[in-house]
Each structure stands twice: as C-alpha cells, then as structure tokens.
TrEMBL record:
InterPro entries: Methyltransf_11, SAM-dependent_MTases_sf. Residues 69-117 form the Methyltransferase type domain. One of its GO terms (molecular function) is S-adenosylmethionine-dependent methyltransferase activity. Keywords: Methyltransferase, Transferase. One of its GO terms (biological process) is methylation. The keyword Methyltransferase applies. It comes from the Bacteria. It holds the Pfam family Methyltransf_11. This is Class I SAM-dependent methyltransferase. The keyword rRNA processing does not apply. It comes from Ramlibacter rhizophilus.
Length: 253
C-alpha cells in the first residue's frame, strides 16, 4: 500500500483522502486521538486534540510524529473508554481480522467518541478492474491495478458491522470517480468525471469515507468531561517518542 501511493492513481487517491480527513477531523475535540495504520496519510494534521498517537501495523515504517507505537490492531494498548477519536485509513481492509479491529476500536473509544474510516470500494471501476486482474493472474497473465495486500470491504457491509457495535453513522460519502488508469496524463483527461460522478453515480466512487459515533444505550452525558490522560495498558509495547520515554511524557504537564 505504501509503494502504491507513489503511483499516479495512488497520488490521486491520496490527495482526495487527505482533504476528506482534514475536513472530517477539524472540529472533533477531546484529549487523545489515534491514527491506526498508513503513516503516509496525515489523517490527524488538522485536528486540534492535544495528544496524537500513531499506531503502526505489521510491515509499516514510522515517519516523524509526536508518538509512535507498534501494536496489534486486535489488542490496542489503551484502556477502555480512553480515546476521543480513532482514524482508520484503509486499516480495516489491511487487517487480518477487520471485525476484531472494529471491536477493539469500540472498546477504547469514549462514549460519543468518533471513528473515521476510509476504504476502497469493490463496487467501483477500480474494484472491477482489480477483480478482473485477479482472475487473469490465475491464468498466469495480467497485473493488479490496486495493492495486492488486503481485501475489499463493501460499504454496506461496513455499515452493518458498525450498527452491530452500536455505532451511529454520522456521514458516509464516496470519492474518486475517474477510470482505473495508470498514468497522470490519462487521469487528468477524465477529471470531469469527479463532478459528474458525485452528482449522478455517487456510490460507484473508488473510495468510501465514513464517520461514525459510538453510542452507549441508557447513558446521558452531562457537562464537560474532566481533563484525563490516555491510560496505556500494562503489557510492554514497542514505543518511540522523539527520544522521550513514556514515563517522561506522562509527567509533562
């Protein structure tokens, strides 16, 4: 996935997703936010929550951030109800067990906390080309258009998973309607399809984008929550923080 973002369609998708994440997280408040996976996309750069964490999945390499932690997405090193915002840029489709990852996100989010998810849409021109390429590969010919790693998760399927975990979908949208082309020149020729696609066939965009809120039945929030710290689990987790230890950081006011 990291190398694919350096290709022309990868840069096109990256630019759209960066704008979508910037708009979605700008007005989300709290004290602790986590981006799980895909460090090439700065999904939290416009968010004003004071403490940002970057969780890296297996095979991913860190970039300069305030925090880095390497963790199993099925067992995040945070206590329950300790994060205000979690962003998952393609993290579910790259996970070995995406439903378990979502359950873990629900566990660590505070009531009324938000999760922001992006994923590749199997019901798109890009998804159709990928499936065709996989069939041809079985015959020993053809080349994949999208990254080989990961599996598509349909938009409706994702919404069903969120509903089962007591998330309420706040917004859902699609993006990137240009055909599955491999060069900047041809992608630029079909720029007009983004405006037309958003108006006339929105559900066939190459990527979907979902913002959901964790709801807790029978719970009513009153007043402003007290300032809190993100409680880290006691199990050892590889962690790097620009030369500071976790204990040094926790003692910083």
């Amino acid at each position: 996935m990291q190398q694919w973002f350096e290709t022309p369609p990868g840069r096109y998708l990256h630019a759209w997703e960066q704008q979508a994440f910037d708009a979605a997280v700008a007005d989300v408040f709290g004290y602790h936010a986590l981006q799980l996976g895909l460090p090439e996309l700065e999904a939290l750069r416009m968010n004003r929550i004071p403490h940002h964490w970057m969780g890296l999945q297996q095979g991913e390499h860190p970039r300069e951030r305030n925090y880095h932690l390497v963790a199993d997405s099925h067992a995040l090193p945070f206590e329950a109800n300790s994060l205000d915002l979690v962003v998952l840029p393609h993290s579910l489709e790259l996970s070995a067990d995406p439903h378990a990852t979502l359950r873990e996100v629900e566990r660590v989010l505070v009531p009324e906390g938000r999760v922001v998810i992006s994923g590749l849409n199997p019901a798109s021109l890009w998804g159709l080309r990928q499936r065709r390429a996989r069939l041809l590969q079985r015959l020993g010919v053809g080349q994949l258009f999208l990254p080989e790693a990961g599996e598509f998760i349909g938009y409706r399927r994702l919404r069903d998973w969120l509903r089962l975990l007591n998330f309420e979908v706040e917004t859902g949208r699609f993006g990137c309607w240009r055909p599955a082309l491999s060069t900047d020149k041809w992608l630029a020729r079909y720029e007009w399809m983004d405006a037309v696609g958003e108006r006339w066939w929105p559900i066939f965009g190459a990527v979907y984008f979902v913002v959901a809120i964790k709801r807790v039945r029978g719970m009513r929030l009153m007043g402003s929550p007290l300032r809190r710290r993100a409680k880290i689990a006691t199990a050892p987790v590889p962690l790097a923080n620009r030369g500071q230890s976790v204990h040094q950081r926790e003692e910083t006011p």
